[in-house]
Amino acid sequence: DTGVSQNPRHKITKRGQNVTFRCDPISEHNRLYWYRQTLGQGPEFLTYFQNEAQLEKSRLLSDRFSAERPKGSFSTLEIQRTEQGDSAMYLCASSLLQDYGYTFGSGTRLTVV
Amino acid sequence: DAKTTQPPSMDCAEGRAANLPCNHSTISGNEYVYWYRQIHSQGPQYIIHGLKNNETNEMASLIITEDRKSSTLILPHATLRDTAVYYCIVRPQNTGNQFYFGTGTSLTVIP
Model confidence over B77-111: pLDDT tens digits? Predict the structure, then answer.
């Protein structure tokens, strides 16, 4: 296991379509985080899971966004009825329960046209 | 919300030490100082963290002032691969909560 894996790396979609991203964390990590990053800004927190439980959601996570981590392993982030403002890099990170920092994946870059 | 202030950009000559400052004047007693960096088109990478003592690892050194209101990340011998955005973050350790990244310092290492 070499790190956090995110797929796809790039996604171009038409406005109004639904998209789903996948994150595979480091296998023994029980915490998983989703962040969003727009051009010129630092990453912004969206949500995090401890095992399969979603423990916190940012107000940035509108009703069109849903995240799951069904068996406490991989996670998916779905965006319904995409809008141009959803264009961003979506980053996933994972950590152990007692850990100093996160390990991030390389992200999925979403472009809504 | 970000509780740190960093210069937006800095340059450093290759092979010289890069000293990146961070102000965190409202830091609480239980909050640690974390540093991450983000190389273009990659996710952020953890560098180092500390509470009040200076810290050193294979990547960098972290110097925290005695009053803890500011800190400096030191890359002792900067290389071109150190060109990145560096984020200084304060947060209680092991809260499970998010990091607030702010906009960081864009460091350019010049050949």
Answer: 999 999 999 999 988 765 556 788 888 999 999 99
Sign, Cα dihedral of B93, B95, B96, B99: negative
Task: For residue B66, give how far its alpha carbon lies from the nearest alpha carbon of chain A (Å).
Answer: 22
Instruction: Give B86's contacts (C-beta < 8 A, 6+ positions apart).
Output: B6, B20, B35, B36, B37, B47, B73, B104, B105, B106, B107
Longest dimension (CA), chain A: 41
pLDDT along chain A (113 residues), means of 10: 89 98 94 94 92 89 94 94 97 83 93 97
Write the DSSP string, A63-102. TTEEEE-TTSS-EEEEESS--GGG-EEEEEEEE-SS-SS-
Cβ atoms B33, B71 nearer than 8 A: yes
Q: CB neighbours (10 Å) of residue A94?
A: 25
Interface subset of A 29-58, CB within 8 angstroms of B: 31, 33, 35, 40-45, 48, 50, 55-56, 58
Which residues in chain A touch residue B73, judged by CB atoms under 8 angstroms apart?
none
